[in-house]
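Q: I have 141 residues here and want to know how they pack in 3D. Can you give me a structure?
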Amino acid sequence: MTPTATRTSATALRLGVAVVAAAAVNTVIALTASSLDDGGIGMGLNAASFLPATVLGLLLGTAGWILIARRAPKALRVVVPAVLVLTWVPDLLLLNAGATAANVVGLMLMHLVVTTAVVLALRPTLREPAAVPAAPGQVAR
């Protein structure tokens, strides 16, 4: 097996674990938010809504990560939090549609879980920075 194939299969395995972990954590969040969502609309808190959205979010996050990491990997430090905050805007708008704070906070936490899963799964794919030579007279450690 070539090193590239090994890295690709390791990345696929990490993404698979990320999907399962994110789905499990989002299930717990949805159940908790649903139990606290007294009289709200419960938007996005049923499994038929959040499980496909979790997988789709991981796929879109992976695609975005790959595109940015190839061109400007340092930009991920700004882009990832910015995209996360942007995903919270529709959640906050649900407050006007009759959603409770528990519903909205639950959805926001679910977006955080998906973002965290993508970052943890793909962070090892970033290239290591080139070794910086030691200054004259210093010993590299």
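Q: Anything worth noting?
A: The first helix runs from residue 3 to 36. The CA atoms of residues 35 and 41 lie 12 Å apart.
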